[in-house]
Amino acid sequence: MKPIRAVLLSLSLLLPNPCAAADRIVLYYNVRPPYLVPMADGSASGLTGTPAAHAFKAAGIPFVWTEMPTNRQLLNIKTGVDTDCGIGWFKNREREQFAKFTKAIYRDSPTVGLANKSYGLRQGASLRQALMANGARVLAKDNYSYGPFIDGLLSRLRPDIVRTTNENSVMVKMIRLNRADFMFVAEEEADFLVQQAGSSINEFRIIHFSDMPPGEKRYIMCSKRVPDDVIDRLNKAIDFE
């Protein structure tokens, strides 16, 4: 019996220990100023990076930073390969099927229009007015959702949409070169995107649409392998709301 017990003991040591796995969380981030700004020590700061790190530290939960593209983060969290979390994700019904969410750590400002200098829409006009204006040209990324409000108006009003598969920095250049009148951006990212395109914000107009709803809330999204106790401790440490 002793050899059998020894074998069983050896096998048990090879099995994953849920408690041990929960001792540290793999915390994913992707570089996206001003939300997630990489630091020299491998950590991240920014509008969502800083409050996320604060929550883990205040809750006394050990974690390790890991830079990873968002699509890979989503796949890992969905398949539950580790006790891992991602920073600054939107919450929706589909994601709630395979992930756990903390309380919100940030809320975006309302989406704005980044327009070229020659665009004549008055400040304070509604998005509906902008889209109904004769000859208005909207630059939009192909197969991309701008949220139910914007998507709904684009579908119903059918303005002249300039479709592109280019990255945001190239889209900014297209606006500056008057290939379209405006594009949609998060106000927090406007300066960074313009700088990334090699331009100055003074070369553009920022349009605040009067009917634009508040921005979406952002959360820490974790795999189902992260214990509920960890989520509860993070929620107690989050002081955004």
Q: How would you describe the overall organization of this protein?
A:
The protein is α/β, with parallel strands linked by helices. The chain folds into 2 domains: about 20-110 and about 215-235, Periplasmic binding protein-like II (D-Maltodextrin-Binding Protein, domain 2, 3-Layer(aba) Sandwich); about 110-205, D-Maltodextrin-Binding Protein, domain 2. The protein is about 35% helix and about 25% strand. Helix 7 links the parallel strand 8 (about 135-140) and strand 9. Helix 3 crosses helix 10. The longest helix has 13 residues, at about 1-15. The radius of gyration is 22 Å and the shape is elongated. The N and C termini lie far apart (about 60 Å). Residues about 5-20 have low confidence and may be disordered.
Distance between the termini: 59 Å
Unreliable runs, pLDDT <50, ≥5 residues? 6-22
Radius of gyration: 22 Å
Helix content: 25-40%
Number of helices: 10
Q: How many structural domains are formed by the residues?
A: 2
Task: Look at the structure and give the mean pLDDT.
Answer: 90
CATH homology-level superfamily of the largest domain = Periplasmic binding protein-like II
What is the 3D form?
A: elongated
CATH 2nd-level architecture of the largest domain: 3-Layer(aba) Sandwich
Our estimate of the beta-strand percent is 25-35%
H/E element sequence = HHEEEHEHEHEEHEHEHEHEEH
Largest sheet: 5 strands, mixed
Quick one: CATH class of the largest domain?
A: Alpha Beta
Strand order of the largest sheet: 4-1-5-12-6
How does the helix and strand content classify structurally?
alpha/beta
Strands, total number: 12
